[in-house]
Structure formats: C-alpha cells, structure tokens
Specification:
single chain, alpha/beta, eight-stranded antiparallel beta sheet, seven-stranded antiparallel beta sheet
C-alpha cells in the first residue's frame, strides 16, 4: 500500500525515480508525485492524481534536473485522492519535502498544537502534519534536519516509512520506519530507497532492511548510517536481494495475474524443492524440526491472517487438525489484535502474510509474543518484517507476486501448510509412515497435475463469456472445498467488481437459498471426497429452483455432470490436496470475466497489494 522511492547518486535522478514508481504500481495507488533537489539547491515538487503515466505527462517540459530525489505513489487514507493531497508534501516555509507510507494516529492532536503556534495547513493529510512538525522543531531549536526528524518521531503515534529532503541540500536524504517497510539499496557511489527492492533491482543487489524505529542518514560520499531515536548508532547489515528483473516482467502474457496463474507448476515446484527428504519418505520444514519441543508440547495453534491468507489458513486448520490432532483456531488478524486474546506459552501462533508486511498481522505477532506464545511465520518475501519478527517460520518461495489479486501465493501457502502438517504429524506420530509416504508422493505430482488443470484455459475462456454480465455469484463448497469457495468468490469480487459470496454448502438452506433464481449463477466445488453425496444434494436443491450451476468436479464424474449447466473436470488427488487443484479454474474464471468487462486486472480499484495500514 503506497510506495516510496528515493535516490542519491550520479545517475539520471528523474528517470530512476519514475521507473521505480512504475515498479511499485502493483502495490496499489491513486496518485503519484516526485520531489527533486537540484545542484543549485532548488526543490521542485510535481504531483498529480492518477497513474504514474499522468505524472510523466505533467512533468513534461518542466525542470527535472536533480542531484537527488524522492517519489511516492499514494493510496488515500486521510483526504480524498486529488492533486493537493498527493505526496510529496511541503513544509510551510517550502524548505522541506516528505513522502510517507502509513498513518499518523495522533495527527489531529499534533495539528491542533501546531495551529496554536501559527502553522497553516493546506491539505487534508496526516502526512503534512508530520512535515510541519519537523519544520517547526528545526526552526525553533535551530538544529540539523536529522535532529528535527528524531525529535518529531518521538512525538508520533502510528505507522510510517518516511523520506525527507531539504532545499539547499542536494547531498542528503533522511528516512525512517516504524511498522511500514523500507529498504535501502547500496550501489557504486549511489544509494536507493524503496518500499521494497523492486525499484532498484537492476542497479544493485546489496540491500539493508531498515528495522523499526531506525533512522537512515544518506549523505553523498559518506557511508550509510543508521541511528535510533536516541541517536545511538546501529550496525549496518548488508544482505543480498533475492529478486531478478525477469520476475518483474510479464513474459509475453497480457497481465501479471495470468502469468502468475500459469507459473504455478513452477512456483509449487520451488515451494516443495529441498523439503522432501529420504527419497520421498517424508517432508522436513527446518522451522518445524528446529523447534521440535514446541510442536510436541503445543496445546493449541492459533493462525492469524487477512484476506486470501486467511482462506489459506482455514485450509491450514483442517490440515493440521486432520493430520496432527491439534486444536486449531483461525482469526482475522485485524480482529485478533483487539480481542484481548487468551494465549499461553503452550500455544503456537502462526502468522500468515504474502508480503510479510501486513500491518494487522504484525500487530497480532507483537501481542502473541507479549503473552509468551511461540510465533511461527509463513511469508513469501525474504527479508520482510514478519520473518524478522517471528521466532521461526517458512518461506513459500513462489517469487514476487505483482498482480494484486493473489494466485500463486495462495497455492504456495496451502502447500506450506500441507508440508507443515505432515512435518508435525511425523514429530507427534499421528500419521503412519505409510500414509505420510503416500501423501508426499502425491505432493511431488502436484505441479504436473496443476499443469494438466491449466489445460482448462480455453474452456474457461469460452465459459466466461456466458457469465460476464452476471450481477451476483454464489460459491459453495464443503469440507476442504469451503475455503476454496470463499477464495473463488473473493477473486471475482476483487478484479471484476461483481458481487460474490462464498458459503459452506450446507448453510445454503439457512438463508442464501432465498437468492437462488435463474439470474444467480452458483459455482459448486465438488471433487470426489467423503462429502460428495452431500454436495450432490445441494446441487439438486439449486437446480430445482432454476439456478444456473458451474461445477468443478473430479474427472470421470457422471452424477453432477448430469445436473450442472457447465462442468470443469480436474485431476483426482487425495482429499487434503484438492484445494490446490480446484482453486486453479476459479482463478481463471475470475480473470477472464474481469478481462471481458474491461477491468484493470492487475491493479483493481481501491485495492493494494500490501496492506501496511489499518
């Protein structure tokens, strides 16, 4: 959510910043802007509502000569999306410019106090309050910018990643973070800033992941410096960025989402790689086996997540309970953090987030740790906040996911939960060696079975034309297929803007069946499992009320094929692995309906890839 780019060096500052903003477009935004400090000390700020291409058009013919700069894509929180509220923001005297991700919770209190001292405000944003506060402290105390930033941040309550530049100083950028990601890239005589590593991946792989309540001092010709709010210097740890340019390109596909759907045979292979041991006898997740005692003695597992990760977590609950006989609860991280949860040191909290930066999930981790729980993270982004804040964990290793609507990260999370359940089952002896061996062998087949499922692409593309202009959808599933129904409905809502709801199929008759008519398509996820006969009954109930049915079934199904209007056949797999297979047709169906409706599939309105604010 939102994106920051910064640069100081000898390259073309404007081009580097604009290119960096384009790389961050996947995060979601509604306006963009840039602040440039020239060699003569001029501070030029250009910003506009809409896409980065709008900003480029706005800057055409303007002075873009610069020695350093900061740039931003904004997703509105305080104040409507408009040119005035877009970042960067000026201080009142025009000497400072700031970009900011996050929210300042006590901005109104600070604003009122500054107003009493004569400060005037020109936007509706919390960010302007922060830059005005920094300016006020700097002028009152006649101090350096770094000291003013440190003092201001001590007064701020909230989440932020910021970068501040100063007129008449083309040789310095001050940045800081708390609960919002910030990465520094170190090149040859140049330094980059980014909300992640994508803006500068082609320039350097040497990165520093800024920690909470660290301030970054970037000065031309000097080594990078990190200090805390008390001016105590921190060690600069340089890591290698695990990212390539090819991963950030569409590779011939019209959209990143379609590319990422079709990448799943590869990404699932990467997810599994190195985790199947002893010639397929079992799986080993290092994060689990290096903490055997914790998993042996666990009383309860609580999984916290948001959005698609929450759906994957519901599947994780079923997998762990079925295989390991451990009580599991799944909580929305946003509710968990305010629910006064009862947690003990015998509990394990599993935090799940694709980006590793989800604000609500990070807050849930902090609460769990304060209460003594062992915290395990499942994330995709190496070096992100959640892996660094948890006691142990597992990366899903599916590569960068650019499309806002998650696809390959969902199947990667489900695969990690499957391997985690098998690992814990091995430790606790809740499954026989033969059962584990059989499931592991099926896991190894999953990438090729996903490839087979993707052959439905042309059939789904044709099918989507029939339902492009439907106004509502219902998705139904039972057991392992219920979270798949939730996820399928979410995908359709996210990118096509069609209202859709997912339900456990048995709950249909407790209210939702009232909606069934000839204009309400129902998607039924009905693989051959132990609840198959039950779902057949649900299909009959819908059909008797004139409902149109799209059914996802196991190859060779004859019963539902006779009842449904459209059938998509998928390969047969063990019941616990069906969600990975059945989710693929739902991803494709959502994609093609959205494309048919002319929607921006990769960047749907109002959504952000990484939700770093409440």
């Amino acid at each position: 959510m939102c994106g920051i780019v910064g640069y100081i060096g000898n390259g073309n500052v404007y081009d580097i910043l604009i290119n960096g903003l384009k790389r961050l477009e996947y995060r979601g935004y509604d306006s963009a802007g840039i602040a440039l400090v020239s060699e003569s000390g001029d501070l030029n700020v250009y910003k506009t509502v809409g896409k980065v291409s709008n900003l480029e058009n706005f800057c055409a013919g303007k002075n873009t000569d610069a020695k350093l700069g900061i740039a931003h894509t904004r997703w509105a929180t305080h104040g409507e999306p408009c040119d005035n509220n877009a970042h960067p923001h000026f201080s009142e005297d025009g000497n400072l410019a700031i970009v900011h991700n996050g929210t300042i919770e006590n901005y109104q209190l600070l604003k009122d106090a500054l107003s009493e001292h004569g400060c005037k405000f020109y936007t509706e944003t919390d960010t302007e309050v922060l830059v005005q506060l920094i300016e006020y402290i700097k002028n009152e105390n006649k101090c350096e910018l770094i000291d003013a930033v440190r003092s201001a941040l001590k007064q701020v309550i909230g989440a932020y990643a910021i970068a501040v530049v100063e007129k008449n100083n083309p040789n310095q950028i001050i940045a800081a973070r708390k609960s919002s990601p910030l990465v520094v890239g170190i090149g040859e005589d140049e330094v980059f800033l980014g909300s992640d590593g994508t803006p500068f991946v082609e320039y350097t792989k040497d990165v520093v992941y800024v920690k909470d309540e660290e301030i970054v001092i970037i000065r031309r010709g000097e080594p990078l410096k990190l200090v805390d709010f008390d001016n105590k210097e921190s060690k600069v740890n340089v890591d290698r960025l695990q990212l390539s340019i090819s991963q950030l390109e569409k590779g011939g596909y019209p959209h990143f989402m379609l590319k990422e759907i079709f990448e799943q045979p590869i990404t699932l292979t990467d997810c599994i790689r190195g985790r199947v041991v002893n010639a397929g006898e079992h799986v080993m997740l290092n994060g689990v086996f290096s903490n055997i005692d914790k998993f042996k003695e666990v009383n309860r597992i609580i999984i916290v997540a948001c959005g698609t990760s929450w759906h994957a977590s519901l599947l994780g609950k079923s997998l762990i309970q079925d295989m390991c006989q451990i009580a599991v609860e799944v909580e929305y991280a946003s509710e968990f953090r305010y629910s006064n949860p009862v947690i003990t040191d015998k509990d394990i909290v599993i935090a799940v987030s694709q980006s590793g930066e989800t604000a609500d999930t990070l807050a849930a981790i902090q609460i769990a740790r304060q209460k003594g729980a062992f915290v395990y993270g499942i994330s995709n982004v190496v070096g992100s906040s959640i892996p660094r804040e948890t006691d142990s964990g597992t990366y899903i290793h599916v590569g960068p996911e650019i499309g806002v609507a998650s696809t390959k990260a969902f199947t990667g999370q489900v695969m990690v939960f499957t391997m985690l359940a098998l690992s814990v089952a091995k430790i606790k002896n809740t499954l026989s060696d033969e059962t584990i061996r059989t499931l592991v062998n099926w896991i190894l087949k999953i990438p090729s079975l996903v490839t087979e499922t993707l052959n439905l692409d042309d059939q789904i593309k044709r099918l989507s034309l029939i339902y492009t202009y439907a106004r509502n959808f219902m998705y139904l599933g039972r057991g392992y297929s219920y979270p798949v129904a939730l996820e399928g409905a979410l995908k359709l809502k996210e990118i096509s803007y069609i209202h859709a709801e997912g339900y456990p199929a048995a709950e249909m008759k407790h209210g939702p069946i009232a909606l069934i008519d000839s204009e309400m398509p129902t998607v039924i996820i009905a693989p051959k499992d132990h609840l198959y006969e039950k779902i057949v009954s649900n299909v009959q109930q819908i059909k008797s009320r004139g409902g149109s049915i799209i059914a996802i079934v196991t190859k060779g199904d004859t019963v539902i094929k006779e009842l449904a209007d459209h059938v998509l056949e998928v390969p047969e797999v063990p019941e616990c692995l069906t969600p990975i297979i059945t989710s693929i047709p739902l991803q494709l169906l959502s994609y093609y309906i959205a494309v048919n409706r002319g929607k921006d599939v990769d960047m749907p309105r109002n959504l952000a890839k990484s939700v770093t604010v409440e």
